[in-house]
Amino acid sequence: MGDGAGDRVDDGAGGDAMNDVKSSALAGPSVASRRRVPRLLLVLIAAFVVVYAAVVTLYALSGRVTSLGPTEPEPESGGVTVVLTVESVDAAHQRADMSVTIDASDALYSGDKFSVATDIHVIVAPVQGSQVITFPARSAPETKEVSVLTGGEIENWPFDRYHADHMLVLAYVTTDGVSRPIPTSVWFKGEVPGWSVDVAGRGKPVAEAPQTLGEAIAVSQRVELSAVRSGSTIAFAFVLLALLVTMPCLVLFVAITAFRGRRKLEPSFMGWMGAMLFATIPLRTFLPGSPPIGSWIDFTVVLWVVVGLIAGLTIYVAAWARWSRPHPAP
What we know:
By secondary structure, this protein is an alpha+beta fold. It is built from 5 helices and 11 strands; from the N terminus they run αββββββββββαβααα. The strands form 2 sheets. Strands 1, 4, 5, 7, 8, 10 and 11 form a 7-stranded mixed beta sheet that branches. Helix 3 (231-259) runs antiparallel to helix 4. The radius of gyration is 35 Å and the shape is elongated.
């Protein structure tokens, strides 16, 4: 009797110990997983803050036009400073739209110090349309619009680059039917969101002032203008492309998990997958700068995003056919 009671007591104690071990074994992973979730959440929040700060900082620093010097040059005596304000970069038509005006020296103004005394002609080339802009006499210099031709390939978006390597800016006046060049300084300014525009001089200034217009065109210092996408545009593009790549990864994970029978089959997920597929094109057209269809991103990213989404939807349909059975009739 005593032994039996002792055995029952021992069995009870052993059973309680086994239950404690099982409970601790079951509780252990859940506690560890609960600890991992906040850490993962903190990592995701930190990554988001870093990316957000980088994109905003790059946007704040972008858009400025870098000109030929730190400040706008004063016109030489009897000459002008040609001021070109870059307003936009048209990548599709390979041109940069600018406004042009002049800051003439006092010697070129009439007695009222408001209007110029003679017609002042400014050559800006290469541009679309007329290469010569005329600021008429007896009027204040006004602003003219020009479109400078720039070479580039938009298909390389967002790494496309547009440039005008031999840009000529030269002012002259005409006296008794003879064109005579006048001292010309050039100054670029402006702010173009989404672009970085750099301007540099090409060649060396001549020691002696040319006497004829033809000679001035031949020896004048050229301007090299280049425009590239700003860092904020590139960062924006890669964030959006990363979101596109994430979509098929999520769909394939859900589809493969369901096909293997490791998660309950939810037929409503097929509607979610179809919505992800139809969201691909709107996201692609939301890319800054509107890259044309057929750019490198379409062959390297967008096409395979669509393939991944279709593959995930196909796998999920196969999982539905494999695991979904009609309920038996009562």
